[in-house]
Amino acid sequence: MAGDPVADDPPAGDWVAVATDAARGGTAAATGVRDLASAAADAAGVTLRTVHDVTGIAAVADFFSDVWQTPRSTPPYPAEVLHSLVHAGGAVHAAYSPAGERLAGASVAVFGPPGDADVYSFVAAAVASDRGVGYAVKQAQRVWALERGARTMRWTFDPLVGRNARFNLVKLGAAGTEYLVDFYGPMADGVNDGDESDRLTVTWDLAAPHSRTAEEGDRTAAEGDRDAAPATHLAPDGDPLARRDLADSRVWCRVPDDIVKLRATDPLPALRWRHAVREVFTEAFAEGYVATGMSRDGWYTLTRPSTEGHA
Fold first, then answer.
1. Could you tell me where the Basic and acidic residues compositional bias lies (predicted)?
2. ∠ CA(146), CA(3), CA(261), 5° rounding?
3. What is the pTM of this model?
């Protein structure tokens, strides 16, 4: 998450419309997650708070400006917008350093349409050094959502940023469920300049237990299956970009080692990667695949829902 947008257009609505029975069930589910969030904050060395006051929200807006490398006079998420979202029933979470004087991470979440038990993570970011801050912030969002009856959370991220994919799909256990082509149009924010703004929507089952096995890394057997599968597409560097197993149960797709650096130093090859990965994802999603994993060496795993596993 650090330094990369994971934002989307917020849906209208307010959490108070969520059914009472769902809220009661969500509160029960939040009990264990609350302990997880507290442990994550302790491990990251931060204090997590929901932010309501004008001064605190202004500091969060400044933090987002620093992450997205925009002038503080023109923040990507203005303080007045954040304040309005909180007033409408959303939540701004912030992670503070031990002394409480410095922001290390922040997020914004809102509910979907009235009666819908779905939360949208409008934006989330952490400092570049992270140290687990991003994970702690997401768990704080998760607790807040479960306490209000939510069942799932959605957000978007740049599918070419492998570390974000691994965080979302492996660390959190979410799944990539929708591929959005050039979602925002041109972006001049200091991070995405010169690229097309494709995004992958992820859906996170907030109440589902997430196996530590998934967090601990790659599965050797799955990597062996991948390497043995026929290549279906070539990457801009000439090596295999995508592979598909003979049973049509899994597709693998590779992303560059560091798209942010490549985009800054050599925009044309970066754009070629964008188009190449787009082709693989749009073809696979049209056939019913979803993204369920990301290896340490930069390969997505896409599976069909009937065979879905976080590999």
1. 212-228
2. 140
3. 0.84
